[in-house]
Design brief:
Elements (H helix, E strand, L loop, with lengths): L7 H9 L4 E5 L5 H8 L5 E6 L2 H11 L6 E5 L13 E7 L1 H10 L7 E6 L4 H10 L1 E9 L5 E8 L12 H7 L1 H5 L3 H16 L6 H17 L2
Parallel strand pairs: 1-2, 1-4, 2-3, 4-5
Antiparallel strand pairs: 5-7, 6-7
Helix pairs in contact: 1-2, 4-5, 6-9, 8-9
């Protein structure tokens, strides 16, 4: 396993994981964890996987790292103890499921959380806002579609990332992405505008709310 074996979305996650003890939740074959360990980016790694076959492959892939790595069979944060890890990553699933995983064991969520949802990151940002986590960094990566990658950090006080932005718009599209006028986000928002404009006359209130949100985002991105 080497860095080249990772997709761009996972390469970004790898670069954002802080040094320390890290757990990858839903680790599949533990390629991300293997790269983290192989490049000495973390002190120790735990791969958590709930399905038997990928769990067994994860065990095999992590053997060469000896006591620095282990795989655990289980769901979400269930196999971890409170305070056991410094950071976690959750990649390649829906943001709604990620939130459920984090909410199931709030006492086991460390101060650093890195996620790569396969859909809108809005539920993750709302979870972070409500649970005392700030958006430390976020980006969009190219792949089958534009994958969001987010790094949350537990901090006191209101997240300054959202200052000066309409909250609903920032939850939907990302405060850092909006403020730096991310080109990939602009492409995405323009596509959303085109799709929603075609539905504008249907009388669906959700369509109108979404379109208003998209137009607000465009005002920020095109200033």
């Amino acid at each position: 396993m080497n860095l080249k074996s990772l997709e761009p979305r996972l390469q970004t996650v790898l670069e954002w994981v802080p040094n320390g003890v890290h757990a990858d939740i839903g680790a599949d074959h533990a390629y991300l964890l293997g790269n983290l360990l192989g490049q000495n980016r973390i002190l120790r790694g735990i791969a958590v996987e709930k399905n038997q076959e990928p769990f067994e492959l994860a065990c095999k892939n992590l053997e060469k790292f000896g006591s620095r790595a282990e795989a655990r069979l289980g769901d979400g944060l269930g196999p971890l103890a409170a305070g056991e890890v410094d950071s976690i990553s959750i990649c390649g699933m829906g943001a709604g499921l990620m939130v459920k995983i984090l909410q199931a064991h709030p006492e086991r969520v460390p101060d650093q959380v890195i996620t790569q949802p396969n859909d809108s990151a809005e539920p993750m940002r709302r979870w972070a806002w409500e649970r005392g986590f700030h958006v430390k960094q976020e980006t969009l990566t190219l792949g089958f579609w534009h994958y969001p990658v987010l790094h949350f950090e537990r901090k006191t006080g209101e997240d300054p990332s959202y200052a000066g932005l309409p909250l609903d718009v920032a939850f939907r599209f990302g405060p850092h992405l909006l403020k730096r006028k991310e080109p990939l986000l602009l492409d995405h928002v323009l596509q959303q505008q085109k799709r929603l404009t075609q539905l504008e006359g249907t009388g669906n209130p959700k369509v109108q709310r979404d379109l208003d949100c998209v137009r607000s985002a465009l005002e920020i991105l095109q200033k």
